[in-house]
């Protein structure tokens, strides 16, 4: 099962090897455009650094994932790909990482660079709070305005993911469930049988 970063601030980890400083930054992203914008942001923040190597994996479905990496001037295959391999090894999705390097005057060699860049990412991942990504069945549920607050509270209290709430003549919840039968039973008991779940597909959500 894939995982991603818990929503929140970037995860930052710094390491130093033979006077070279490596700053790894992990960010949750939802598109390759957002991932590349993150890379450019790090370049602007640290223009004095020699390298800004990066990797990202975006997309929950294995067949439709976008992933890229860059050595950004380091010898080919010594930075971007090893960084990407750490993301693969941890089965991370919707995550981008940038490792900024300030050269310390001592060359590390190809093997040393691979260990340095992959190690920097591993330290950042170890410091991150990860959440599983789960494919769940998605339904809409329409209730009266007078019942909406109680229904929403009970849904969330039972661990049902409320993805959206829209207010029209009735209040329509879009919800995602691990177990459709369990959700149907819950809704039936909450609404005295009046609530009708309408299936609308599946969606990946944080577990």
From TrEMBL:
Residues 141-193 form the UPF0029 domain. SUPFAM superfamilies: EF-G C-terminal domain-like, Ribosomal protein S5 domain 2-like. Pfam families: DUF1949, Impact_N. Transmembrane segments: none annotated. Residues 18-124 form the Impact N-terminal domain. It comes from the Bacteria. Belongs to the IMPACT family. This is YigZ family protein. It comes from Rhodococcus indonesiensis.
């Amino acid at each position: 099962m894939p995982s991603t970063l818990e929503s929140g601030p970037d995860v930052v980890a710094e390491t130093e090897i033979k006077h070279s400083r490596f700053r790894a930054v992990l960010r949750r992203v939802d598109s390759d455009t957002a991932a590349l914008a993150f890379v450019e942001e790090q370049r602007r923040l640290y223009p004095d650094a020699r390298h800004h190597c990066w990797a990202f994996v975006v997309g929950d479905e294995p067949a439709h994932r976008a992933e890229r990496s860059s050595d950004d001037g380091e010898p080919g295959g010594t930075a971007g790909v090893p960084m990407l391999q750490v993301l693969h090894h941890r089965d991370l999705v919707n995550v981008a990482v940038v490792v900024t390097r300030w050269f310390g005057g001592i060359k590390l060699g190809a093997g040393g660079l691979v260990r340095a860049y992959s190690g920097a990412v591993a330290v950042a991942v170890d410091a991150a709070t990860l959440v599983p990504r789960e494919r769940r069945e998605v339904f809409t549920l329409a209730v009266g305005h007078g019942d909406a607050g109680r229904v929403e509270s009970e849904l969330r209290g039972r661990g049902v993911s409320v993805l959206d709430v829209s207010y029209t003549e009735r209040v329509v919840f879009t919800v995602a469930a691990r177990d459709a039968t369990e959700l149907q039973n819950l809704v039936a008991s909450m609404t005295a049988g009046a609530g009708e779940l309408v299936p609308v597909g599946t969606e990946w959500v944080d577990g």
